[in-house]
Amino acid sequence: MSLFGIELTEEDKLSLKNFEEKLGKDSDLRKSHLAYNSESNKRDIYDEKFEKALFGYVNDRFYFYKKMEDPKIRKQIINVIISRPHRRTFGVI
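Predicted structure:
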């Protein structure tokens, strides 16, 4: 399956889902998302948190890590996560 312009294995799709869930559980990220921050500030915070969360995959899922490290793919993923309704990403209704 192709997503974000890359081929994803079933394991990649599961890792991506887990990755988004991990970001969704980050309380600082949640606060910044729900606050009245500019889109630019939100993006900067997401980028920082994305980098930290992605680093957790470097040892166990190195090829997934390398795919997600691509700047174009990274930007697309952050755009998708930021645009998700609050209730999905952060469990907020």
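Summary: The helical segments are 10-24, 27-34, 39-55, 62-69, 71-83, 86-90.
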